[in-house]
Amino acid sequence: MKDAIPTSATLHDVKYEIRGQLANHAHELEKRGYEVISLNIGNPGLFGFRTPETMRLAMIENLGQAEPYCHQKGIFPAREAVVMQQQDRGIEGVSAEEVFIGNGVSELIDLTLRALLNTGDEVLVPSPDYPLWSAAVSLNGGKPVYYDCLPDNGFMPDPEQIKSLVGPRTRAIVVINPNNPSGAVYDRDTLRAIATIAREHELVLLSDEIYDQMVYDDAESVPMATLAGDAVCVTFSGLSKVYRACGYRVGWCVFSGNLDAAREYIHGMELLAALRLCANVPGQWAVQTALGGFQSIRELVRPGGRLYQQRQVVIDRVGSSPHLSMTTPDGAMYAFIKLDERFATQFDDRGFAQELLEEKHVLVAPGSSFNTPYTDHFRITTLPDIDTLHQVFDRIDDLLTQYA
Fold first, then answer.
1. CA 295, 301, 305 angle in degrees (round to 5)?
2. What's the CA gap between 63 and 73, in Å, rounded?
3. DSSP readout, 233-285?
4. Strands annotated E in 153-199
5. Contact predicate 233/100, CB 8 Å
6. Could you tell me if 233 and 90 are in contact, meaning their C-beta atoms sit under 8 angstroms apart?
7. What is the maximal distance between C-alpha atoms in the chain?
8. For residues 390 and 394, what is the distance between their CA atoms, to the nearest angstrom?
9. What pLDDT does 160 receive?
């Protein structure tokens, strides 16, 4: 028998357990006839959230123009719509030349890091983070250095700690706001302090704002680019979450701030974008309609809206459980829930997720898969309907009561 083919050593530090072993096991259970409630992925279309009809029509009506490759940065109407949105938010000096359309934000995270990093360069990444950020840093030869967003501080970053982590190889600071997985929404003063650090040390700000309009109650999502000044800021967003169009695979990133300093960086991005030819063209025709049309997300996140009410069910059920606690999520579509400390001797977050899947057929994401040093949290999406959410928490409480 021939020896097994080894995988690349660059995969050693890469993990993405949201679609990892637990998800694979859930699929096996489903093939054996079990019904699994999957809460591991924020995928609105799976839970009955539809893409606005105007976006679907815009894509259909332009299919005839979507057959050839487009420019590597994306079609002009989509990029220009992003520019208009940035201008409406108070971000100056941006043109379509500074906008890149990608196959979702995921591809653009990879491209921006590949264009920036040399082997051994460091990127400051929040803990918890969306694990693609850590993976993309590692895959592109860099080293993720984590700054803490601790539960005791409402998952807010500490700018003083961030400043203390800056070293001679630091190239960028990643900000995920509103945050996935915690749902934290960073206040203006915190963001301003992080921007000041970037300016003082000539670091690139990589601001993941894919949930920018998905905020609740009095929370305010402040665009980092409005505070960056003459720091180079790259803002990421797209159609997947706010516009419930994950399958369209359309994201964008926008360079702003000191564009003279960013010219070589942008040219590097142009080269990498050209090597992959272009992003998915049909979905790009929905961007102008999405950004310029009626913003239906606002109805979903206000009191009485479906996202708001489902989030409230999660808040209420966690609050009434003797086994769980949580910092209220102010944004995004997730809850990052803590197990009571008395379970620490029985299982960690991975063990709990495994037991919950095996015994109760509910799939969640272990908190440590978001690069936390602690192992007592798990993440769920708040997308399921209210009845399903009650079923989920009934099952969680049943399982934990057995162990308690």
1. 100
2. 19
3. EEEEEESTTTT--GGG--EEEEEES-TTTTHHHHHHHHHHHHHT----HHHHT
4. 170-176
5. no
6. no
7. 63
8. 6
9. 97
Q: Is 80 left (phi over 0), alpha (psi -120 to 50) or beta?
A: alpha
**Considering the domain boundaries, does residue 2 fall inside one?**
no
| Amino acid identity for residue 378 in this structure | F
Strand partners, 379: 336, 365
Dihedral pair phi/psi, residue 71, rounded to 5°: -55, 150
- Does residue 24 share a domain with residue 100? no
Q: For residues 328, 305, 240 and 207, what is the CA-based torsion angle, rounded to 10 degrees?
A: -40
Is residue 253 located within the same domain as residue 160? Answer: yes
For the segment 207-224, what is each residue's pLDDT rounded down to a tens digit? 999 999 999 999 999 999
pLDDT of residue 345: 87
Strands (E), 9-73: 37-38
Q: Is the pTM of this model over 0.90?
A: yes
DSSP annotation of 4 reads: P
| Ramachandran class of 402: left when φ > 0, alpha when ψ lies in -120 to 50, beta otherwise | alpha
Q: What percent of the chain is helix, strand and coil (3-state, nearest 5)?
A: 45, 15, 40
Burial class (CB in 10 A: 0-12, 13-18, 19+), 149: buried
Same domain, 97 and 174: yes
Q: Residue 56: is its pLDDT beyond 80?
A: yes
**Do 91 and 228 touch, CB atoms closer than 8 A?**
no
Question: If residue 365 lies in a helix (H) or strand (E), which one and from where to where?
Answer: strand 365-366
CA gyration radius for the chain?
A: 21
- The pLDDT tens digits of the residues spanning 182-204 come to 999 999 999 999 999 999 999 99
Residue 236: phi, psi to the nearest 5?
A: -110, 135
Alpha carbons 289 and 312: distance in angstroms, whole number: 31
What distance in Å separates the CA atoms of residue 289 and residue 299, rounded to the nearest whole number? 18
Question: What CATH code is carried by the domain that includes residue 227?
Answer: 3.40.640.10
